[in-house]
Design a protein that fits this description.
This protein has 1 helix and 3 strands, in the order αβββ. It is of the alpha+beta class.
């Protein structure tokens, strides 16, 4: 199935980190087509990562929003 949103551009390192965290915690996202994952980016800032969920290992991270601004 095709994704609805364009993929948010981030470094391969950050993408792999967040993708891995979603995989590790997938039990939280089962049967939730659009989900939000809170985590620290590789810049040590806290973000909400919004993603489309098409099943385990099949995600599209389409938005990243800082949880708070300095």
């Amino acid at each position: 199935m095709a994704f609805i949103y364009n993929t948010f551009l981030m470094s391969k390192r950050e993408y792999a980190k967040i993708y891995g965290e979603i995989n590790t915690n997938y039990f939280k996202y089962i049967n939730i087509p659009f989900a939000v994952h809170a985590s620290y980016g590789i810049d040590n800032r806290a973000y909400w990562y919004f993603f489309e969920n098409h099943g385990y290992g099949d995600y599209n991270i389409y938005m990243r929003i800082a949880i708070w601004e300095d």
